[in-house]
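hey so u asked for the seq, here:
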Amino acid sequence: MVVITRAAAKRQQQSSNADSIVLHRNIIKKKRKKQVAGQHASSCISSSSPLQSNAITSTSCTFTLSAFNTPNSNECLINTPITTTASSSRFELCDHQNQNDVIGINDSNQFISLPSMEFNQTDNNQQDQIHDVEDNDESDTKTSWPIIVGEIQWCKTNRGNDRMCMCGYTYDFMSQTLKKNIRYFRCSKKNIGCNAVVRICIDSNMYKDSNNVEHNHPPDHHNVKRLLVLQKIKERVMVEPTSVTRIIEDEYVKHHLNDGDREKFLLPASQASKFYKIRAKMVPSNPKSMNFKVPQLYSTTHDDDEFLIYDSIHKKIGGRLMIFSTEVLIKILCSCEIIFVDGTFKTRPIMFSQVYVIMGMHLAEAIPLVWCLTPKREEEVYEKIFKVLKRKSIEYGVKLEPKYAYADFESGTINALEKVFPDIIVRGCWYHFTQSVFRNIQKMGLSTVYEKNKEVNIWLKSFMALPLIKNDILDAAVELLIKNVPSSDKSLIDFYEYFQRQWFTRKPPRYWSLGPIHIRCNNSLEGYNNRLKYRFGIHPQLWPFIHFLKAEESLVMMRATQIRNGIYRYKTMPFSANNERLRKKTKQLKNLSRLFQLGSISLNRYITNLSTFVGEAAKKKKKNNNDIHHATIDDSRIDDDNI
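ran it, structure tokens below
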């Protein structure tokens, strides 16, 4: 028993259909030739000059025109039966060079010999009026369409070969000749016998010429548009982790389909399964363990530059560490004297502990330059990150030596920075400092008195404002606050003991005593972490996370180029804390410091004025049936849940 596959059966059916179409066209051509011969013979007889007034009249007769070669002229022999049924039909014989060309008339046999007629010289007007005749259909149909030259667009065949689209026709790649700088494309409708071929220049992808064979089918602009839209969907499906159905819907909307186009397209839900299969071949499944291989698509940028600069599993650091950056971004990082480091936990892929981001102050604007997926939040991990960056910078011909680093008060980060960069000055973020103090106010049960008692409110906020004064007067300021406790409540004494233990013993003032400087916190990094949360969502899968990270890299490169060209937009900067409001606050802090140094205001007044920079705790707000307390810095709200 012969087994035939579906593909073979389909090809056999297409072949039989093509044979039937060709046979049908041959029959049409034969009918057309017969019709032309009859029309031409009649026209020649009726238009010829009379031969010595010889006329033939017959009630019913059949003539055979026999044109033959004579010694004096080139003539072709044609036998064409002509039947007349009219009661009286008159035929005038045409004169042809020589009257002797008329051989004779045999009335009995009803045969007549006529001079030669050259059908190759048929009038052009008659040729233009030739049409196909199909069975009994009397309407004329067009059988050829010229190759139209216009805009060239490209897509791919199912086998991945180039397909050219031009003016409603599609052409598939055949071959190429490098010596002649030509690529050959044949009409995609070769299954119906269309042999139109166009030639394209290799270097310019522009139309050159054709084989002068016309199409045997009309153009189909709707089908060409369908192929181009499907090609765009396929390209997006292979690189974007977005829902396939959503991608299809987006492309349908972008291409503004009309009624004719919609007839050619399937609904997104019907198209989705095919593209999911394509994606499954290109995009690996979401890893379930740390032993996974990163495809090249996710280890390079959109410009095919190296993006995954480090990827390794170490028992010492407790798992897999992945560091994403580029050579250009590392060089920008090395040019920055100030860096910001912080981790976020909500936007991490579930297998990792956190997303660790490093930003640099590049030409007065903070931009993200390095992204890390860490297995743990420990000193060994941070130390490994900074050592890798330091080694990479040397490979790229630069040196990473930041002067200042702003971070939260995590001991692991501070110790790692000071170990890898011995000369660095680490400054804790006032943002995190204020939040930590305010959380302890809540834990000690001082929230009510903080909100209702003005003296207690100013006293507690004065502790939060201590990082804004210079280090040389810090001890005097703390002593002044202890001597002026607004109440004998034991909880206030407990608060002071907590402050002394946490912020003088565990975290020395050198990390949080900032003074009236311009940069007091890494709000720019906190804002960027919120952007990642909005962009990535909560605990995204690994491949979608890296895909969106590549988009972030493209955005950072664009912004870095704008900064270098002097394009500053303080109100719309996506990452920078360098805004006008911050400038005003810094100027006000410097003015207060100058007034105190000049003796215009006392230390008590100076500290009290600084306490106004700490925003009031927000009133309890209902959000998803949960009460959330907030504290603010520089009129910016700080959510305790973000720490």
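The chain has five domains: 7-119, 152-219, 222-282, 298-429+523-559, 430-510+579-642. The longest helix spans residues 6-47.
lmk if thats what u needed
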